[in-house]
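Tokens as discussed.
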């Protein structure tokens, strides 16, 4: 099952090492699962599933089944070896009880239970137990079915044998505690996206997700014999690829395993997803650095050897080579060292050399053996290099203009007086009329206004040189001050709140989508860092006499009328067609005043899903967009936000 060498020795109570007791998890849940919002809630499922995935990595588990029960409890069942049930030599209680009641107790810490482990923080079952109303575990092992129940981390029943079986594995059912979490409702889509990723990363593993919350259970089976090759094909399925199948490279050294799948498409965007022991390393790390260094050297060496680059030509840069590239890098290693604030950056130095040497040797050989594919991707990189040079000239021109002729920039920036970026916010406003109201209504100390008009460039269909020469996007780049693409530097960002304020109609939503596409593709750290917001101007003003109340949709209008005890026919109900219809005082009161405004923060929870949505909505292919609209049209209840 696993590509890794199987571990030596047995898996029993002697392999479970205890590091420390369970302390104050319920008092500070955010320290262990990130938050008490939806993200933390779903993290509980991942923690339990990680134990099953570790069994799969070790070669002992081929099927995992996760069920969302009608009451939003979760059942996770695998066919692994089953958690050890013998008396723990140090703690004197059943080992399965140790795993569920003592923090940092598990087979991952001693180095003998698992050769490779995917648990990021290692808190696992004990934290899920502590944050659940109840947790029941059944272990199928040694011919018996063992069962134990806990409530809010406390043992309720002793471990007991409740039956016989010829199977092995573990079944865990838990109900997150409503005293801890804001809302206990699981998203099928969030779980499906994560489990699909895990199925791709663990070739041959069957993951079955079942939703029992409706009359007809919803069942999704995720099983990919192609592994990360299937992963790349999935990401590229709505893009026009320029070669088939994806290039696949793998290597193993000193118990560490690396595999890479890569394929080029006709887009101008790079999509590289890196993983270490199934954990998404969103901040990159040594494996990603090794990949980028090696691929750049391979392309330049090949281009020189076969005269794609002439003697006086400059070398291709990494950004040229990665244009239109979709790649998945997956490494599996004994002791991953994670760095960065979110612990999603791999720091193992030995992995860099393994990845670098593997790519250089095997990709070079692939190009020699497949000259037709080599020619296609080399020519794409050379075209990207020419576009980069054009972009450089456009960028230099824009810098000269911004320094000498800033008043001629389309959409004149009205800046704020505050110089500390953490206290500053900028409203990117649709239209001159709304921009004028926003400038008059704002707090000049910390609120800047940048009016834009008309539809801007769709960057999904454009290279970077077109971005720098676009009169609608150039003011945004200049105002934010952090550049774009590989040159983007979040430390130079002039505002830490970037608020998109567009009309609450279809055109306004299109402009928002164009801006979000631009930021996701060329200023991704803005989205990843939570700097981007969407303003929510009201759609209606309901007035009776001198009293005025604002509403965001027709449902709220009815609620206001009922709460006030008014009759609808006696009220004045104004529907705003655009932001420009509001006077400065109204715009401040409803949309710009931090005390009363409502904003949506743009968060990036799933980069792969986000890439797919932008590709479908803004890409070249019409059919996926048409299909998306047909599937989701029935979910739309109100086109206005």
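Sequence:
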């Amino acid at each position: 099952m696993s590509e890794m060498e199987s571990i030596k020795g047995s898996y029993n109570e002697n392999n479970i090492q205890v590091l420390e007791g369970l302390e104050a998890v319920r008092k500070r849940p955010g320290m262990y699962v990130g938050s008490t919002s939806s993200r933390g809630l779903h993290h509980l499922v991942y923690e339990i599933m990680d134990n099953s995935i570790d069994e799969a990595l070790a070669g002992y588990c081929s099927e995992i089944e996760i069920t969302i029960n009608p009451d939003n409890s979760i059942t996770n069942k695998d066919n692994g070896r089953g958690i050890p049930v013998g008396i723990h030599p140090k703690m004197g209680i059943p080992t399965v009880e140790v795993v569920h009641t003592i923090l940092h107790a598990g087979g991952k810490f001693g180095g003998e239970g698992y050769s490779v482990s995917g648990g990021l923080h290692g808190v696992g079952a004990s934290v899920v137990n502590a944050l659940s109303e109840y947790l029941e575990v059944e272990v199928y092992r040694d011919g018996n079915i063992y069962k134990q129940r806990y409530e809010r981390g406390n043992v309720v029943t002793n471990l007991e044998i409740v039956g016989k079986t010829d199977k092995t594995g573990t079944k865990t059912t838990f109900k997150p505690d409503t005293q801890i979490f804001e809302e206990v409702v699981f998203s099928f889509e969030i779980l499906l996206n994560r489990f699909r990723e895990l199925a791709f990363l663990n070739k041959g593993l069957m993951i079955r997700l079942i939703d029992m919350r409706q009359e007809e259970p919803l069942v999704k089976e995720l099983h990919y014999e192609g592994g990360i090759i299937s992963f790349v094909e999935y990401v590229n399925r709505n893009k026009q690829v320029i070669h088939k199948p994806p290039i696949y490279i793998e290597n193993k050294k000193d118990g560490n395993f690396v595999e890479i799948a890569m394929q080029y498409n006709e887009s101008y965007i790079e999509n590289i997803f890196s993983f270490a022991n199934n954990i998404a390393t969103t901040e990159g790390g040594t494996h990603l650095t090794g990949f980028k260094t090696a691929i750049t050297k391979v392309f330049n060496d090949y281009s020189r050897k076969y005269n794609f680059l002439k003697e006086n030509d400059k070398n291709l840069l990494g950004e040229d080579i990665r244009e239109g590239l979709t790649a998945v890098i997956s490494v599996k290693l004994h002791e991953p060292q994670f760095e960065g604030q979110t612990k999603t950056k791999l720091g193992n130095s030995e992995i860099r050399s393994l990845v670098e040497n593997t790519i250089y040797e095997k990709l070079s050989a692939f190009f020699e053996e497949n000259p037709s594919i080599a020619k296609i991707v080399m020519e794409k990189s050379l075209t990207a290099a020419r576009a980069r040079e054009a972009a450089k000239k456009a960028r230099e021109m824009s810098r000269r203009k911004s320094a000498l002729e800033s008043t001629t920039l389309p959409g004149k920036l009205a800046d704020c007086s505050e110089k500390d970026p953490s206290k500053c916010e900028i409203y990117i406003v649709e239209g001159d009329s709304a921009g004028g109201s926003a400038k008059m209504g704002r707090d000049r100390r910390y609120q800047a206004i940048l009016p834009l008009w008309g539809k801007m460039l769709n960057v999904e269909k454009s290279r970077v040189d077109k971005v720098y020469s676009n009169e609608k996007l150039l003011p945004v780049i200049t105002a934010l001050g952090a550049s774009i693409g590989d040159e983007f530097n979040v430390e130079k960002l002039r505002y830490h709140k970037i608020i998109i304020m567009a009309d609450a109609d279809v055109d306004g939503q299109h402009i928002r989508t164009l801006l979000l596409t631009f930021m996701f593709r060329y200023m991704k750290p803005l989205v990843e860092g939570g700097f981007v917001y969407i303003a929510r101007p009201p759609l209606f003003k309901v007035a009776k006499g001198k009293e005025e109340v604002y509403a965001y949709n027709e449902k709220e209008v009815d609620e206001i009328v009922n709460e006030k005890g008014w009759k609808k026919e006696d009220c004045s109900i104004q529907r705003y067609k655009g932001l420009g219809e509001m006077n400065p005082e109204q715009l401040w009161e409803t949309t710009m005043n931090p005390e009363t405004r409502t904003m949506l923060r743009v968060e990036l929870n799933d980069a792969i899903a986000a890439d797919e949505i932008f590709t479908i909505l803004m890409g070249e292919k019409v059919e996926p967009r048409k299909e998306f609209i047909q599937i989701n049209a029935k979910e739309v209840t109100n086109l206005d936000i």
